[in-house]
Recover the amino acids of this structure.
């Protein structure tokens, strides 16, 4: 993340009263993607990181892909054609200061149903259910970017209130990096420079 | 059902060895010309001919346009095919060269790779509810599963319609393209193989997909350079593509796009597909256009140019010089020339028969023979016109099959070209402005520039 802060052109908008920092990342992932990052000022935890492909000739701008956080845009069924029903499990990443955390809400089955494994070859976490109702594969982009090895021991799950919580403890390298960034931010004052694309959809 | 003059053409009607079958794909006769077109087609498919040009020459009504249409059909939907008439480029809104440039760029495709999201799974349940009041929007839910998971989707109106149209039911394995909403039925699930009822012999059984329902898939789609031009010319916006009213596009925009496309090509993101530009009635172009064509054919991104003309040795528009087909010699020199010859009686009969089928007209054998005779003596086009009119007359008398009397009736109602000429010769004095009768008719009608 530190590296990202340095090598991407960070534009910062925000007012002193606004509770979060909002950035657009222009070059950090690849040349044809733009990103948007939001960080809570109080806790200095990222609560949104999203990407989308830049509009190119002959193609539409793609939708935001949420790496962290979730989309709260209103549902427009007719424009979308079909959408996952709200009764389905909802998957979102919501980090804490010490761990990467994913929450799958709307899962009514007991904790024995879930089987969460880490595959070191594909660097992906797989969630399986014994009753074959839910299945999800996801990677941990922060670990990939920092090129750190994945430790199955750091992965744990918890269940409660119809929600499955998958936690991966941040290794010390990541914690160190985040601390440096947070220190930078504590020094920063929000400027009022330029407009940034922060529309919700 | 509306039918165009060449709607019955499905291809060139050639076998694998490029030999023309006598009657195939809606094409009849013209074996030599069709074989020549087939050779050119093969060269286009191998990408060898880009920047070269072909001329189809022949008398009126000998199937020049039909051969061009057949080539378009045989090339498939992935190769851009643009068809214009020579007179189309003369417009007040844009210059001749702009119109030609646009036609050229419409005929060059750019194949772009793109990632899209698709949903692939077995239909567990599909439920579409009409509101209790009887009117208003339908509400639908679709449950899909893979071997690992199950998800319920809410359906929009369009998706409900297309699911109903595709007759999607529980047990089908389908894919849905999220971006376009296109539904593809892959087959029936193996677990349903025992439901013997209600399935045809051609039902295909497939395995239930594995893993996640939503998958990323690389798709390839083709856009033309012209479409890219229009989208990127600031003043227009992509809406101009729908209205067709694109106006002139600035040279700088085109240059930018050319360099961008070249860049993509090097990065492997895009591929150039040289298509086909067909200019019918090419003798309507003038000397400026011909010199433009000469130049345009030399650029490295040029499509295959196919031209058709029914003129012999005639004046080149915009000059005083005469030249074969009304085309300057220097351009003619670059062309491969295919010639078509008048149809035989047997072939005319077959074409008329195909047209009858295409227009859903039942015709008795006698009537067809009479019509063929008319076709031989007047022209094929006139005979084809009579099919439609005779069918109408037949329907008015509540007949089911067009017979000889119907043909006779329309033959007396509508004059063909030679009878009309004859008529005019006899009664010219009674028409207006007959004092100008001594003027040669052709030069007045042809010269517009």
């Amino acid at each position: 993340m530190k590296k990202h802060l340095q090598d991407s052109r960070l534009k910062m908008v925000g007012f002193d009263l606004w509770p979060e920092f909002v950035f657009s990342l222009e070059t950090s992932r690849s040349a044809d993607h733009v990103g948007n990052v939001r960080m809570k000022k109080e806790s200095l935890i990222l609560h949104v990181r999203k990407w989308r492909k830049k509009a190119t000739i002959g193609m539409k701008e793609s939708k935001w892909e949420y790496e962290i956080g979730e989309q709260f845009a209103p549902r427009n069924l007719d424009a979308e054609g079909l959408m996952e029903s709200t009764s389905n499990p909802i998957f979102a990443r919501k980090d804490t200061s010490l761990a990467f955390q994913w929450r799958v809400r709307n899962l009514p089955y007991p904790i024995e149903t879930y089987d969460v494994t880490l595959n070191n070859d594909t660097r992906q976490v797989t969630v399986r259910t014994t009753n074959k109702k839910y299945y999800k594969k996801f990677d941990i982009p922060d670990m990939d970017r920092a090129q750190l090895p994945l430790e199955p021991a750091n992965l744990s799950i918890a269940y409660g209130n119809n929600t499955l919580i998958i936690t991966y403890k941040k290794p010390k390298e990541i914690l160190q990096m985040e601390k440096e960034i947070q220190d930078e931010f504590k020094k920063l004052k929000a400027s009022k420079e330029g407009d940034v694309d922060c529309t919700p959809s | 059902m509306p039918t165009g003059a060449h709607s019955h053409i499905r291809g060139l009607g050639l076998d694998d060895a490029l030999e023309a079958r006598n009657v195939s794909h809606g094409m009849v006769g013209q074996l030599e010309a069709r074989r020549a077109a087939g050779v050119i087609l093969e060269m286009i498919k191998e990408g060898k001919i880009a920047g070269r040009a072909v001329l189809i020459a022949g008398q009126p009504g000998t199937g020049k346009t039909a051969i061009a249409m057949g080539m378009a059909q045989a090339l498939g939907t992935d190769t851009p095919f643009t068809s214009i008439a020579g007179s189309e480029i003369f417009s007040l809104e844009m210059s001749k060269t702009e119109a030609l440039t646009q036609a050229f760029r419409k005929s060059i495709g750019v194949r772009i790779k793109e990632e899209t999201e698709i949903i692939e799974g077995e239909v567990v349940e599909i439920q579409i509810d009409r509101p209790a009041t009887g009117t208003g929007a339908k509400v639908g839910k679709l449950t899909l599963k893979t071997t690992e998971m199950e998800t319920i989707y809410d359906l929009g109106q369009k998706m409900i319609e297309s699911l109903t149209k595709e007759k999607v039911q529980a047990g089908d394995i389908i894919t849905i393209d999220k971006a376009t909403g296109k539904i593809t039925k892959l087959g029936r699930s193996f677990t349903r193989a025992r439901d013997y009822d209600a399935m045809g012999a051609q039902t295909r059984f497939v395995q239930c997909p594995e893993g996640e329902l939503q998958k990323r898939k690389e798709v390839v789609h083709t856009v033309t350079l012209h479409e890219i031009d229009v989208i990127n010319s600031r003043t227009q916006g992509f809406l101009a593509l729908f209205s067709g009213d694109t106006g002139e596009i600035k040279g700088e925009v085109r240059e930018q796009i050319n360099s961008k496309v070249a860049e993509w090509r090097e990065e492997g993101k895009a591929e150039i597909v040289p298509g086909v530009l067909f200019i019918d009635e090419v003798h309507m172009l003038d000397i400026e256009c011909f010199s433009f064509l000469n130049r345009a054919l030399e650029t490295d991104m040029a499509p295959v140019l196919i031209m058709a003309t029914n003129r012999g040795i005639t004046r080149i528009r915009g000059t005083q010089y005469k030249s074969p087909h009304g085309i300057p010699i220097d351009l003619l020199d670059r062309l491969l020339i295919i010639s078509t010859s008048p149809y035989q009686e047997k072939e005319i009969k077959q074409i008329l028969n195909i047209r009858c089928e295409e227009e859903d007209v039942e015709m008795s054998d006698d009537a067809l023979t009479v019509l063929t005779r008319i076709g031989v003596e007047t022209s094929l086009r006139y005979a084809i016109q009579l099919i439609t009119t005779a069918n109408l007359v037949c329907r008015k008398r509540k007949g089911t099959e067009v017979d000889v009397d119907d043909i006779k009736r329309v033959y007396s109602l509508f004059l063909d070209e030679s009878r009309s000429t004859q008529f005019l010769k006899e009664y010219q004095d009674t028409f207006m402005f007959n004092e100008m009768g001594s003027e040669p008719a052709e030069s007045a009608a042809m010269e517009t520039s």
Chain B touches chain A at residues 110, 112, 114, 119, 141-142, 145-159, 176, 178, 181, 211-212, 223, 227-228, 231-232, 257, 260 (CB under 8 Å).
